[in-house]
Amino acid sequence: MIRTKPDAEELIHFQNLSAHWWEGQGPFKQLHAINPFRIAFLKEKVGIHFGLCEHEVKPLQGLRILDVGCGGGVFCEPLARLGAEVIGIDLIPENIRVAKRHAEEMGLPLTYLSCAVEDLPQEFPLFDVVIASEVIEHITDHEGFLETCVARLKPHGGMMVTTFNQTLKSYLLGIIAAEYVLRWAPPGTHSWAKFRSPQDLSRILLSHGFGNQDITGLSYSPVRGWGFSSSIDVNYFLWAGR
Questions:
Q1: How far are the Cα atoms of 15, 33, 117 from residue 90, in angstroms, in the given order?
Q2: How many whole angstroms separate alpha carbon 89 and alpha carbon 121?
Q3: 11-26: pLDDT as tens digits
Q4: For helices 198-207 and 142-150, what crossing angle results, to 10°?
Q5: Rounded distance, CA 150 to CA 161, Å?
Q6: 3-class DSSP state of 84
Q7: Residue 191 CB coordination number (10 Å)
Q8: Phi-psi label, residue 180: left if phi above 0, alpha if psi -120 to 50, beta otherwise
Q9: What is the DSSP letter of 177?
Q10: For the structural domain made of 8-241, what CATH number should be given?
Q11: CB within 8 Å of 92: residues ≥ 6 apart
């Protein structure tokens, strides 16, 4: 049985946080803080892969993007402003209601659906890009999940994954420090057993023909804040295109 969905306990955990997606100082504060880096990374990799000019006002114009596990739409909205046709999906109906309401308030033409990626209608048009950002660390069967995402891509499509490496450092900083010391996320948000190494994800995507890959790290400094890093010991971004 392919487990491409989070466990029930994880769904309840995020359901209880659904009202706080757009609170700048709330439980998703750090997600908002890393959002500019997610956008910059995607713009660069998509621009190279599809031959687009990232310096245009709307550099993602003409691209169809699927954001899997979109939450309240924090990543979807800036992508729509950059010109992409964005569809966000999430298993938690409360998240989708929050995302829809906020998009309407911002006047953004976004489409949101409460479903899993495997539940998208088969006749649904394929995507240029599929994003799984801060999602795969909540999935039991990461290989099945990636296969399901890949099936929704066009032949020349690309995929972006952001997640945690499975290292001692990621356990100490990503769970102990972030959840129990700094309180950046509610305790119990992450399970180290579900963290995946970039080598593991890269291998799976390579087996599906994604030979054009790039990985970069993201790290936090008390002085400088978040920034791209050569270290992938804790957080990392992975782009894979075919």
A1: 11, 21, 9
A2: 13
A3: 887 888 899 999 989 9
A4: 40
A5: 12
A6: coil
A7: 14
A8: alpha
A9: I
A10: 3.40.50.150
A11: 11, 14, 15, 18, 114
Give residue for tokens 């487990």: 3
Strand 153-164 versus strand 235-241 pairing type:
antiparallel
Residue 87: phi and psi, rounded to 5, are: -120, 120
Q: What is the pLDDT of residues 65-108, one digit of tens each?
A: 999 999 999 999 999 999 999 999 999 999 999 999 999 999 99
Nearest to residue 85, comparing CAs of 143, 154, 150, 36? 154
Record the pTM: 0.94
Half-sphere exposure in the Cβ direction for 16 (13 Å, CA): 9
Q: Nearest-CA neighbor of 224 among 37, 44, 39, 77?
A: 37
**H/E segment holding residue 39:** helix 29-50
Between CA 164 and CA 235 the distance in angstroms is: 5
Judged by DSSP in three states, 105 sits in helix
| Amino acid type, 168 | L
DSSP 42-78: HHHHHHHHHT--TTSSSTTTT-EEEEET-TTTTTHHH
Asked if residue 1 has pLDDT above 70, the reply is no
Please report, to the nearest 10 degrees, the dihedral formed by the alpha carbons of residues 62, 59, 68, 155 taken in order.
50
What is the CA 62 to chain-centroid distance, rounded?
Answer: 21
